[in-house]
Specification:
By secondary structure, the protein is an all-alpha fold. Helix content is about 80%, strand content about 0%. It has helices at about 1-25, 30-55. Helix 1 (about 1-25) crosses helix 2. The longest helix is centred in the last third of the chain and has 26 residues, at about 30-55.
Length: about 60
Amino acid sequence: MAMLALIGVLALVIAGCACVWWTSRADDAPRWARAVSAVTLALADLLSTPSRRSRRGGSDDD
């Protein structure tokens, strides 16, 4: 069951990346592809923000 969920998440990530690539290359991409692209980029920014904060804060693990 967990493997099926991971495969589903991987498929969504690949589809999102494909939409980002498609909309960046084609001026006539459909509206739904632009929406998926915007959601993918927003999620990527949201998920990458905590890792940036932790790197900026420095570490006390000397």
